[in-house]
């Protein structure tokens, strides 16, 4: 698996195909029910991706320029499509039905395990186009039949397929620049639209909530920290630009700093990595700030930026971090399936989360973890509504307990001295890290910069700038949006600019490896609209599960939209990809779940985390509904 990529795994739920991008190939697995095992025995196909030209150069991988940066499976109209983007700028799309047809044919001929490599010329492509430089972002608008690809050219290329019954596979020769006579209507032929940004763009996103059926609006997230809203009907310049984050150089909360003075400025700490457009009907009702944010009862919401980072445990001091393999203690009982042939290790835990202790002896909610691990002795108890509780089946949501090795030299806090201080007493596997004893929501801790040099803590202050103007989103979008940066998550309200609900370092690990750069970069982002949750993960190995909430705001006719962190999943190891899909149907003949204990049947979701050592963690998400009249959150339309 290649390092420094965005997301190298994806699910094709209708076909029950789990796709893993490995170098220039796509490994296609058929996971088992119910533990989602994807071992070598479940490998169904390997797709060798074609290239547009043999002389293309790579940006981050000169030795393998065609290596895949991201893979995604989305719906284009009624069809599932799989798209990969590569370091040489190639974007390749397939119909999943064609992939499934090839799998069925090979299995019928007994070729699946004999000759897994597929000739690129044999599998028809839906899209094969080069966008100039290393490609990263993928977005698909289902109803409008649009595909957007972003690249290090600082541009976004939008492919608009003809709205005719004869639109089929496309190559670079089929697309033409959009013209006023045919785009946006009647779109009798295919078009390509180019949006000119300001920096490398790792992510793009459409509004698929149903409020933008024509696919007119597109968000782009750039490394320079700018989230831009584009109007594809007038694509010359962005309609709006948002910048939000925390910087040591902030002078005014209402203006982005002109120059970053953060100690880790070389690692672009304010980069924007994703934007989510949210469906307002998917938010869970809350009755208090405590329930909505996960904060204390006496939390006071500011008029501008509401920092709810205090809802997670505070980290105090850590004297020394051992880099030797740690002792990892995970609650629960595991049925582990492993294959020595391919090194794939599947964790299929038999514990259930999201229930009360009376229902399950092993379940632990995120709020319980906070109370158990909070070092300042404060009561961090939060409220959970049983009516709309989210169940999680999988590894315990509590962070793994990491125990430094026995030969760690330092057991007490140690202050940094000047550059001439003697550190010869340390072994190569030990690293000095100092933490302040009074960590607050405005303090950012940098145990290392650039992956190797420890630096002192630095105070950062929030900023938000929307240009042009501060009139909010009401003239453009009626849906709240979430902006995900390298270190922050921020929810912007529709109809008004403030308050912005923000959270910094939500999946911050208190185990650090100087040889794993930027472990908390929020480059893995997914959402499940029907459950009202979204997930943010980092290459550091952890994934936060966030619940969307809303409550009536006094004096305002519109609700206050927010979110809270409910679970922390995963292990502190290198993570290469995450994937979401509804749980597949059980094999014919197996019993299906019954309606009992006041619960109604509802669709469960599976969540797989793929680690660099080919270990896979599998979870299930579902909504628990009590025996009562269904509410808005209980209905899926």
General description of the model:
Residues 356-387, 404-427 are annotated as: Disordered. With 637 residues, the protein is mainly β. It has 2 domains: 1-147, no CATH class; 197-331 and 364-378 and 397-595, no CATH class. 4% of the residues lie in helices and 35% in strands. It has 3 helices and 42 strands. The strands form 10 sheets. Strands 24, 25, 26, 27, 40, 41 and 42 form a 7-stranded mixed beta sheet that branches. The protein has a 5-stranded mixed beta sheet with strand order 1-2-3-4-8, covered by helices on one side. A hairpin with a 4-residue loop joins β10 (135-141) and β11 (146-151). The longest helix is centred in the N-terminal third of the chain and has 14 residues, at 96-109. It is globular and about 65 Å long. It starts with 8 loop residues before the first strand and ends in a 14-residue tail after the last strand. The model is unreliable at 314-387, 395-455, 511-515, 593-601 and 626-637 (pLDDT under 50).
| Strand proportion | 25-35%
What is the straight-line distance between the termini? 38 Å
- Describe the sheet with the most strands: 7 strands, mixed
Domains (count):
2
DSSP strand tally: 42
Number of helices: 3
The unreliable regions are: 314-387, 395-455, 511-515, 593-601, 626-637
Structural class: mainly beta
Computed Rg: 24 Å
Average pLDDT figure: 74
Globular, elongated, flat, extended or rod-shaped: what is the shape?
globular
Q: What is the percent of helical residues?
A: under 10%
């Amino acid at each position: 698996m290649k390092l420094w990529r965005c997301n190298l795994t994806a699910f094709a739920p209708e076909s029950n195909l789990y796709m893993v991008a490995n170098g220039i190939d796509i490994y296609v697995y058929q996971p088992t029910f119910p533990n989602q095992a994807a071992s070598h025995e479940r490998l169904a196909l390997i797709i060798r991706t074609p290239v547009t030209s043999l002389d293309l150069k790579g940006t981050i991988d000169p030795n393998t320029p065609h290596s895949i940066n991201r893979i995604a499976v989305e719906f284009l109209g009624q069809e599932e499509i799989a798209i990969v983007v590569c370091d040489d700028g190639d974007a390749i799309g397939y119909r999943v039905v064609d992939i499934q047809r090839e799998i069925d044919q090979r299995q019928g001929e007994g070729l699946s395990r004999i000759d897994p490599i597929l000739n690129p010329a044999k599998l028809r492509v839906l899209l094969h186009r080069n966008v100039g430089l290393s490609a990263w972002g993928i977005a698909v608008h289902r109803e409008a039949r649009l595909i957007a690809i972003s690249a290090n050219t600082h541009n976004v290329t939008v492919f608009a397929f003809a709205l005719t019954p004869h639109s089929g596979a496309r190559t670079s020769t089929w697309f033409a620049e959009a013209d006023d006579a045919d785009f946006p209507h009647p779109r009798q032929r295919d078009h390509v639209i180019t949006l000119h940004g300001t920096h490398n763009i790792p992510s793009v996103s459409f509004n698929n909530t149903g409020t933008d059926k024509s696919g007119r609006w597109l968000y782009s997230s750039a490394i320079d920290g700018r989230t831009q809203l584009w109007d594809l009907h007038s694509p010359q310049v962005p309609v709006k630009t948002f910048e939000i984050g925390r910087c040591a150089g902030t002078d005014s909360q209402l203006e982005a700093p002109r120059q970053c003075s953060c100690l880790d400025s070389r690692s672009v700490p304010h980069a924007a990595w994703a934007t989510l457009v949210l469906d307002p009907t998917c938010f869970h009702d809350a009755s208090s700030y405590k329930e909505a944010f996960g904060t204390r009862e006496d939390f006071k919401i500011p008029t501008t930026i509401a920092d709810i980072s205090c809802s997670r445990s505070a980290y105090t001091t850590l004297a020394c971090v051992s880099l030797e393999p740690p002792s990892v203690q995970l609650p629960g009982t595991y049925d582990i399936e492993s294959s020595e042939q391919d090194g794939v290790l599947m964790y299929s835990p038999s514990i259930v989360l999201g229930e009360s202790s009376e229902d399950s002896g092993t379940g632990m909610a995120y709020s319980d973890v906070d109370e158990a691990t909070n070092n300042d002795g404060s009561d961090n108890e939060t409220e959970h509504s049983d009516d709309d509780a989210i169940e999680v089946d999988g590894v315990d949501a509590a962070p793994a307990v990491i125990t430094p090795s026995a030969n760690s030299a330092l057991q007490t806090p140690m202050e940094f001295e000047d550059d001439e201080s003697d550190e010869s007493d340390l072994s190569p596997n030990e690293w000095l890290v100092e933490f302040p004893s009074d960590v607050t929501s405005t303090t950012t801790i940098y145990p290392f910069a650039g992956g190797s040099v420890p630096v002192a803590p630095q105070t950062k202050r929030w900023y938000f700038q929307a240009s042009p103007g501060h009139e909010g989103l009401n003239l453009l979008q009626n849906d709240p949006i979430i902006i995900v940066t390298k270190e922050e998550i921020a929810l912007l309200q529709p109809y008004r600019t403030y308050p912005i609900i923000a959270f910094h370092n939500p999946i911050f690990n208190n185990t650090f490896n100087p040889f794993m750069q930027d472990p908390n970069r929020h480059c893995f982002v997914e959402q499940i609209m029907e459950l009202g949750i979204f997930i943010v993960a980092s290459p550091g190995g952890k994934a936060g599960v966030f619940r969307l909430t809303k409550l009536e705001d006094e004096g305002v006719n519109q609700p206050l939209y927010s979110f809270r962190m409910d679970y922390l999943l995963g292990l502190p190891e290198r993570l290469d990809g995450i994937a979401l899909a509804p749980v597949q149907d059980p094999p014919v003949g197996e019993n299906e779940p019954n309606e009992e204990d006041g619960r109604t049947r509802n669709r469960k979701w599976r969540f797989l985390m793929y680690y660099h050592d080919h270990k896979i963690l599998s979870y299930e998400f579902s909504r628990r509904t009590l025996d009562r009249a269904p509410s808005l959150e209980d209905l899926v339309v």
